Amino acid sequence: MEKLTIEHVFGTIIPAWYNVVFRDPEVEKLALERGEICRNCENITPIIRDVKKGKKCGLCGCPIMGLVRSRDYGCEGKKWPR
Ligand code: SF4
Q: Does residue 82 form part of some domain?
């Protein structure tokens, strides 16, 4: 899990959520490919236990929606690159 630093927040997390809000076709294509891998991954888990909507990666703890749209953050399970 990446340490939560100012650089990580402003350099990775905020840009990823920017991409969630303001959809870019290139990022969306990447997000679809990554999302498909995450959907079939044994590490995917609900953000809130027993609630089906909203998933996170069990390795890094990041919500999948933002994670797959991050240009700078790779899969901690090395299933897809940065
Ligand atoms: S980011 Fe990687 S390890 Fe995490 S759920 Fe997706 S494929 Fe699995």
A: no
